[in-house]
Design brief:
The protein has about 130 residues and is an all-alpha fold. The protein has 2 domains: about 1-80, no CATH class; about 80-125. The protein has 7 helices and no strands. It is elongated and about 85 Å long. The termini are far apart. It holds the Pfam family DUF247. Keywords: Membrane, Transmembrane, Transmembrane helix.
Length: about 130
């Protein structure tokens, strides 16, 4: 990174990539997601150490004309979309694992059947 900053400031691909990773990784959970998706491979012992290392690496980098600017812009646009926020919230709260997802699905079915039974006398009266 030092070589790139000193001798190749216009072509700083590695420094820009570290800044992008620093932008993406803030907590242990962020690092865990990237490790699970095989984007990051490490032997540091824990994902918390990965998060600390990436955050420390990106601390002193001055970023100018990043080659990942468009990628970061697309990520921010995707994050700010209200539909994506709601779907992500739904996944993390109600469909975190198979049991919670099944319970949510059964709960919705029971709610619909209950509403149908309540409205049946009003809809089918003679």
């Amino acid at each position: 990174m030092a070589l790139e900053q000193c001798h190749y400031p216009k072509e700083s691909y590695i420094c820009n990539y570290i800044v992008l990773l620093d932008f993406l990784i803030n907590t242990r959970d962020d690092a865990e997601l990237l490790v699970d998706k095989k984007i990051i491979v490490h032997s540091l012992g824990s994902n918390k150490e990965v998060a600390k290392m990436v955050n420390k690496l990106g601390k002193e980098i001055v970023e100018k004309n990043s080659c990942y600017f468009k990628v970061a812009e697309n990520l921010n646009e995707h994050y700010e979309n209200w539909w994506n926020k709601n779907i992500a919230s739904l996944k993390t709260v109600y469909f975190r694992d198979i049991w919670r997802g099944t319970a949510t699905f059964v709960g919705i079915i029971v709610l619909l059947v209950t509403i149908g039974n309540f409205l049946r006398p009003f809809a089918y009266h003679k």
